Fold this sequence. Notes:
mainly alpha, rod-shaped, 89 residues
Amino acid sequence: xxxxxxxxxxxxxxxxxxxxxxxxxxxxxxxxxxxxxxxxxxxxxxxxxxxxxxxxxxxxxxxxxxxxxxxxxxxxxxxxxxxxxxxxx
Length: 89
């Protein structure tokens, strides 16, 4: 009977260790997935900003010289960035 109890305890400890390792692997995968998700969100934000800039560029290009349009857009972006910084302060 004592041997059976020792055997059961050994199996229980082995199962515990296996589950602990599994939980550690899953936690690592979760952290990796969350990091990827954050990077993808940043990339989406950057791409959306690029799309907005291109749409704005097209709108200004319809009005005249492309170099002049780019200069106007750059000036507007700088002004918007400055306003955002002032709001964040």
